[in-house]
Design brief:
The chain is mainly α. The protein is 65% helix and 0% strand. The protein has two domains: 91 residues, Fumarate Reductase Iron-sulfur Protein, Chain B, domain 2, CATH 1.10.1060.10; 273 residues, no CATH class. The chain binds iron/sulfur cluster (2 copies).
């Protein structure tokens, strides 16, 4: 049985790992990485796996999700092998590997196709929206050319198809993450234990709440961020985007359930939406500025998928605020309807592309952390 695939190294280059074969295995990157703990020998070991074609060691691993792409390792690599970017490429590859339709692979590796598919899906979703307002002038005009049922059923089919593949992708990855051994060879898979399970849930909860592990990054003396205020540090930018998005989803659901009267802005759901919307805008704006300015190596090599994710979130946040102001002022101009249309299509695309984009890490990272913490021997064990 051979686990080695000689074509693997060339394959992951397509996902953005363009310099990793310059690595000469010195180990600096692992030494500098504050997240590479006792038994998690990354990123060095994973570069080794990539070079010799050990695909399964990578796609079955929990450790590649422990990395936050801070780029400390890339800053210190003497060979410019960009190990941080390599880890990000491995996560893209793993997301694509778990999603079996092949769409994710196309989206991550073919930029022109990425743009075309995004536009086509936006068009389908836009048409689907029009079927919800069949009496609108534009809807009636459109339905004279394409029957209402065709548009409506196509939109529903897109949602069902993407829903099924999302579910299958997540299920496949959960199976891998839960059923595998850690890449540490001398650590056996442990049997079920309530105390370890609760401890792992608690640790993941704390990580989601405060990003304690991400805060461990950028502490090297020569790190650009070491003496900068926490408000602009990458961990807080990431935290703002994550909590901004979660808050907006909760606010939208609450608005929908309670059918908020349009002009009341002091309802808890509205306040939550406003505060978390500001967080989302703050985080995405800073992340885009860092990428435009290529402020560190981790921001210097952005892929279209990274940009698309940030731009979608930013536009969803911006149009959301626009609509809130429009609702407050009672305006119902055409421009507001167009903004509403864009906001809804972008939001639906974010949901639809969940399994096919960088967004998938929002599920895969907490899961990997959970299984990693759960199967890990306590540090103090004899
Ligand atoms: S990626 Fe760079 S720092 Fe890490 S082992 Fe290879 S050469 Fe050394
Ligand atoms: S990018 Fe940061 S977290 Fe990831 S391996 Fe490098 S130093 Fe560690």
């Amino acid at each position: 049985m051979s686990e080695l695939d000689p074509t693997f190294a060339a394959e992951i280059v397509k996902y953005g790992a363009t310099h990793f074969n310059a690595c000469y295995n010195c180990g600096n990157c692992t030494a500098v990485c504050n997240l590479s703990e006792q038994h998690a020998d990354f990123p060095r070991m994973f570069i080794r796996y990539g070079l010799i074609g050990q695909r399964n060691k990578i796609v079955d691993s929990q450790e590649i999700w422990l990395c936050y792409a801070c780029g400390d390792c890339s800053e210190t690599c003497p060979r410019q092998a960009y190990p941080g970017e390599y880890m990000a490429a491995l996560r893209r590859y793993t997301i694509a590997h778990a999603e079996k339709t092949g769409l994710t692979k196309l989206l991550f590796t073919n930029n022109p196709l990425f743009i075309v598919i995004t536009l086509i899906i936006a068009l389908v979703l836009g048409f689907l929206l029009l079927t919800i307002e069949p009496e609108e002038v534009i809807s009636r005009w459109l339905f004279t050319y394409i029957p209402y049922e065709v548009i409506h059923n196509l939109g529903i089919a897109v949602f069902i198809l993407t829903g099924i593949t999302t579910g299958l992708g997540i299920f496949a990855l959960i199976k891998k993450l839960s059923g595998q051994r850690s890449s540490n060879p001398d650590k056996p898979t442990t049997s079920f234990s309530w105390s370890k399970t609760l401890m792992a849930i608690q640790k993941v909860g704390m990580e989601i709440a405060a990003m304690k592990r991400y805060q461990e990054c950028d502490k090297e003396d020569d790190s650009l961020w070491k003496h900068r205020p926490w408000l602009i540090k990458p961990w807080f930018v990431h935290w703002s985007i994550m909590w901004g998005f979660i808050g907006l989803v909760v606010a939208t659901v609450l608005d929908f359930i309670f059918k908020d009267p349009a002009t009341v802005m002091w309802l808890p759901s509205r306040i939550l939406g406003t505060v978390t919307g500001i967080l989302l805008m703050y985080g995405t704006t800073l992340a885009m500025i860092y990428r435009i300015r290529k402020i560190t190596k981790s921001y210097a090599d952005s892929k279209l998928a990274d940009w698309a994710f940030l731009i979608f979130l930013w536009v969803a946040g911006f149009t959301g605020f626009w609509l809130e102001i429009a609702v407050m002022s009672g305006e119902h101009e055409l421009i507001n309807q167009i903004v509403f249309f864009i906001h809804t299509v972008i939001s639906m695309e974010l949901i639809i592309f969940f399994a096919y984009s960088k967004f998938a890490h929002a599920v895969y990272r907490p899961l990997a952390l959970y299984f990693y913490f759960k199967n890990r021997e306590p540090v103090s064990a004899t």
